[in-house]
Amino acid sequence: MSTAAAFAPARRTGLPEMRLLSVRQPWAWQILHEHKDVENRIIPTSGYRGWVAIHAARTPDEEALGLLPAVPPQWVDADRQFEYEAVIGVVRLVDVHDASWCGEDQYGRPLEMCSPWALRSFLHLVLTDPHPLPQPIPRIGRLGLGLARPDRHLVEKVCEQLPFL
Ligand SMILES: [Zn+2]
Predict the structure, then answer these.
(1) Per its UniProt entry, which superkingdom is the organism in (predicted)?
(2) Tens-digit pLDDT profile for the chain (165 aa)?
């Protein structure tokens, strides 16, 4: 038996659970820097709750880009620098509910949404605790509309930059 193996320093076993969500710009950036705390989707997600890596998709939402105010809100702490085809940060998914849950009372009368970012007739993925990656990780390829499972290598690279995960 090799002594080196027996006394090897404790390596990090078990990486954190993580999923990957592809979001078009500017929304991806806004999740991480502008308190965008709801992502609106139309397809059901799994019951997963926990860390989600935000992947900035290859193509932007041109309409949303065009509607961005020339000057970001004063409290935004980062320059608008939109990466594409890269994992740009992580956020915690804490709830998923239908818009009718937060947007209507029991008689179907409209109420306030759970967030200014929430849209009617969508599923609301409620996000909190955003952590931008100091160095975005290139990740090319289509991911689909739901939560994807990242490969181990990607999770390791995320954790190198965010070791508290
Ligand atoms: Zn909601």
Answers:
(1) Bacteria
(2) 444 455 555 555 689 999 999 999 999 999 999 999 999 999 877 899 999 999 999 999 999 999 998 888 888 878 899 999 999 999 999 999 998 888 777 777 777 889 999 998 899 999 999 999 999 999 987 788 889 999 999 999 999 999 999
DSSP state of 8: P
Distance 10 CA to ligand 1 centre (A): 43
| Cα–Cα–Cα angle for 152, 53, 146, rounded to 5 degrees | 95
8 inside domain: no
Is residue 108 domain-resident? yes
Using the mean position of ligand 1's atoms as its centre, give its distance from the Cα of residue 101 in Å.
7
Q: How many domains does the chain fold into? A: 1
Is 14 buried (19+), middle (13-18) or exposed (0-12) by CB count in 10 A?
Answer: exposed
Look up the CATH number of the domain holding residue 59: 2.30.130.30
- Please state whether the peptide bond connecting residue 26 to the residue before it is cis, i.e. omega within 30 degrees of 0: yes
Query: Is residue 88 included in any domain, yes or no?
Result: yes
